[in-house]
Amino acid sequence: MRRVSRFWGRTAGLVALAALAGAALVASCGGDDELAVTGLDERGYHDTSRLVTTQWIEDNLDNDSVLLIDLRSADDYAAGHIPGAVQIPRSAFQVEIDGVPGLIPPAADVATELGAIGATADTTIVFYDARGSIWGSRGLWVLAVYGHEDTRLLDGDFPLWESEGRRVSTAASSRAAAEYAFSSDPNEDIIAGWDEIIASIEDPSVLVCDARSPEEYAGRDVRADRGGHIPESVNVEWSRALADDGRFLPADELRKLYEGEGVVAGNTVYTLCQTAVRATHTWFVLKDLLGYDDVRVYDGSWVEYGNRQDSPIDS
Question: Of 19, 191, 202, 305, which is least packed with CB atoms within 10 Å of its CB?
């Protein structure tokens, strides 16, 4: 496990759920109409099995197999949330390891968080947050690494839900705690380390897509010991993939955006930002919505890269 040994070395003996084999319970899988994904076909996405609409949420509010997880702040949750949603802190999906903040937590810690809110291996988990699925995508990526079978994002998040006049609750929601444990090795195919990023600089078959702001990319907004960007990387700020209402742009607009910046299908693409939150958003867009074959998140991202004195940097 060359790429991820530093992250999971302390958790030897722990196991993870079967590796993600694709989202279950979609419309094309056995006719389970109750969990069918609807309302996204017209946008031309490659795969909508991990994306749901506000109407889908409305239709499944009383479905006990669906667990809504609110990743906004505790104050925002208390002020109003989707009925039945439970709130967990964003720190459930990021920890500091060996002096590098923002890394993926050990499998045992994530499993503990899921069990505490009543999730089981059969639960359909839907994340939503306050802005463009940015933290939702982090949660989805973490569970994709560890192998939860059915994880989804709410397109447009809570602001869209609220703007449509849908029901909002201020009552805290909870479920009985459950036993939750991962049962197989992490999925290394969607995670990259510093060594791979360095190797990519001289490899024309690999591209680094930097999801940070242009100011960060240029080194004018410095959030580590050094500012700038990885040589040969390209900059497509994560938020450019969103419409004004917070939903994802249609596939043709996304394709024009990324291909226009040189992020084309057929190459291995590594995504990064500051602490691999925005990077997971870009990973989801490229992998699910556009169907790129090989997309991986550099979990250390700029907080690691920019703090290492041996990292080559352009500005």
Answer: 202
Give the separation between CA 291 and CA 75, rounded to whole angstroms: 37
Per DSSP bridges, beta strands 100-103 and 95-97 are: antiparallel
249-260 per-position pLDDT tens digit: 999 999 999 999
CB within 8 A of 244, min separation 6: which ones? none
Catalytic residues: 273
* Residue pointed to by tokens 């994802």: 248
Residues in the chain: 315
Residue 68 host element (H or E)? strand 66-70
> How far is the C-alpha of 307 from the C-alpha of 301, rounded, in Å?
10
Q: What is the largest CA-CA distance in the chain?
A: 54
Q: Rounded to whole angstroms, what are the CA distances from 190 to 196, 222, 281?
A: 12, 27, 13
Decide: 229 and 314 in contact? Cβ < 8 Å: yes
Q: Which two tokens stand for residue 202?
A: 């001289």
